[in-house]
Amino acid sequence: MKQLLLELIKEWFEIILPEIKEREAKPEKFLDWNLKKIIPIIGFRRVGKTYLLLSIAKKLGKENTLYVNFEDERLNIEKLNIRDFINAVKEIYGNKKLILLLDEVQEIPKWSKWLRTLNDIPNFFVYATGSSSKISPKEIPTELRGRALTIHLFPLSFREYLSFKEIKVDRTTTSTILNELREYLNFGGFPEITLTKDKGKKYLILDEYFQTFVARDVIERYRIRNREAIRYIIRILLNSTYITVSKTYNTLKSIGLKIGKNTVANYLKYLEESLFVYYLEQYSLSEKLTIQTPRKIYLIDTFFITRYSKFSENIGRKMENTVFLELLRIASKNPLLEIYYWKDFQGHEIDFVIKENYAVKELIQVTYANSFDEIDKREWRSLLKAKKLLKCNKLTIITWDYEDTKELSWFGEKGKIKFTPLWRWLQKHQ
Q: Which residues in the chain come in under a pLDDT of 70?
C-alpha cells in the first residue's frame, strides 16, 4: 500500500492542472499555521468543491501542496493505513510545511479521526471535501469537534456567473445585463451548466444531477424505505412556498400513502441536511410561535424551479430565491447575521428580515416590477407596518429594473424606502 501511495504522490507532480475559473470563496485565506484548523469545504453536489481545492494548488504551487482523491479506484480503502500515508508523504516531501488537499474523505473508514490526526502533525495543513451521498455536509464540522473552520460553497453568484461568461458590468449595457440575469434565474448557477452553451444539454445535465441527488444523497444515504413518499415530498417542496410537517403529512395521507408524522419530519430534515432545500423561519419574539408557524421554502438553485416546478414561469419566485441564496452567502461569512421572514395576522408579509446582534438590521421585499406603479401597494405598506413593530428604518424593495428612493406614508406611518434593481443589488454584495 505504501508503494502505491508513493506512486500517487509522484503522479501529482506530473498532472497538469485544469483551467480554474476564479471563485469568490478564497480558501487560501484560511491558511494560518499559527491557528491550525481543518478547513472542510461543504456544499451541494457539483457546485465546484474539487475545483476549489485545486485552485489552492494553482495559487500556492504543487510543490507546496498534495491533492489526493480517495475515490481513486487504485486505492484499497479498507487496507489504507494512516501511518503508511504519513510515511509516504514524508518520504517525498520531507518535513517541509505541506498543504494537504483531501477530496472525498468519506471513503476513508473513520475519516474524522484521520483528519484530526493529520491536523495534529505540525507541518501539515488540511483542507477536505466530502460527498453528501455518504455523509451529510453538516456532519463534517460536527465530527471534527471544534477543530474546523468551514467554507460553505454555493452555486455561482450572479457576479461569478458574469465572470464565468467574461462579461464586465461596466463595459456592457443594462439591457444585456438584464438578459443575462434572466438567463441566470432560469438556468441557475451550477458551474458546468453555466459553461454549457447548448440549452438542451443544460436540461440533460440538471436531470442527471437531480436523479443522482435523489438516489444517492437521499435514498441511499439515509436508507429510505418509503421511496414513493420521499419523491412526493420532493414534489411538494418544488411546488410550494410554505411547509409544515402536519400539512405535508395530511397531503400524503390524502393520496393513500402510509407514513407516520415523525417519518415525514425526518424526511424533510434529510432534504435540508443534503443542502437541496432551505427552510426559513418566521421572525417572532416568541420561540413557540417561531416553531409552530409554517416555514418558507427555498431551493439550492433556481434551475430546479425552472425544470420541475409549477413556478417555472414565475420570475418573481426565482428572484426571491436568488435573493435568499445571496443572503445565505453573506450570512456564511458573518455568524452574527440571521435571516427570517415576517407575517402578521392581517396578512402583511416581509420577504426577508435581516437580524444582527439582537437587532433587526434591514427589511427586504422582492417584486418583479419595472416601475413604481407596477409595485403592489401591499409591498411597501407591509414595510411601513413592520418598520414600527420591528424598530427598523432600513427598508428595501428589490425590483426588476426600477431604481429610486421614496418617502412614503400609510396610516400615520412614514418611512424612506429604497428601490433597487436586482442586478445592481447582487453586484454590490461580495
A: 429-430
- Count of alpha carbons within 13 angstroms of residue 220, beta-carbon side: 12
Cα-Cα end-to-end distance for the chain: 45
Residue 343, phi then psi, degrees to nearest 5: -155, 140
Among 425, 429, 408, 426, which Cα is nearest to 417's? Answer: 408
Counts for the chain of helices (H) and strands (E), in that order: 17, 14
Q: Are 365 and 351 in contact (CB under 8 A)?
A: yes
CB 42 within 8 A of CB 154: no
Please report, for the domain that includes residue 118, its CATH number: 3.40.50.300
Q: Which of 339, 325, 338, 352 is nearest to 152 (CA)?
A: 325
Buried b vs exposed e over 81-106: b needs ≥16 C-beta within 10 Å?
eeebbeebbeeebeeeebbbbbbbbb
Does 353 fall in a domain? no
Report the distance separating Cα 310 and Cα 102, nearest Å. Answer: 40
In angstroms, the CA 83 to CA 198 distance is: 48
pLDDT of residue 430: 58
Name the domain count of the chain.
1
**118 in a domain, yes or no?**
yes
Distance CA 130, CA 136 (A): 8
Contact 323/185 with Cβ under 8 angstroms?
no
Grid look-up 483531501 returns 102
